[in-house]
Amino acid sequence: MPSSPNELDAELRRVGSLLEKIANDYSPSSPERAAIEEAAQALLFVRQRQTLLTAYHDLKMALGGELTPEMKAKLRQLGIDPAQLDEEA
After folding, report:
1. Residue 19 near residue 25 (C-beta atoms within 8 A)
2. What letter does residue 13 receive in the DSSP assignment?
3. Quick check: helix, strand or coil at residue 25?
C-alpha cells in the first residue's frame, strides 16, 4: 500500500497503464474490456478510501485521539462522515 499521495499516484498510474494495455487487447464493446475498466475504477475508489482512512487516523492521533466537535462538523460539511470512518478504522 502506498504511504504518500505521490506514491499512491505513481501506483495508480502504473496499474492503470497495465490495465489499459490489457483492455486494449479486447474490442471496445467487449464484456472483458468493460470488466477491466470497472475493475480499474474500483481500484481507484478503494485506494482513495484507504488513503482517506489513513489521513483521518493520522489526524486523530496528532490530536490526542479525538477530533473536536467543530472538526467533525467541518468534515461532515465536506461529505465525510467521521462516525463511519471511526467504524472502518
Report:
1. no
2. H
3. coil
Please give the pLDDT value at position 8: 81
Among 58, 42, 41, 14, CA closest to 6: 14
SS3 21: helix
Terminal Cα-to-Cα distance of the chain (whole angstroms): 16
* Residue linked to cell 471496445: 28
Domain of residue 82 covers 5-88
| H or E segment to which residue 45 belongs | helix 31-62
Pairwise CA distance, residues 61 & 22, whole Å: 41
* pLDDT, tens digit (0-9, with 9 covering 90-100), for 61-74: 999 999 999 999 99
Give the helix, strand, coil percentages of the chain, each rounded to 5. 75, 0, 25
Residue 17 pLDDT exceeds 90? yes
Q: How many domains does the chain have?
A: 1
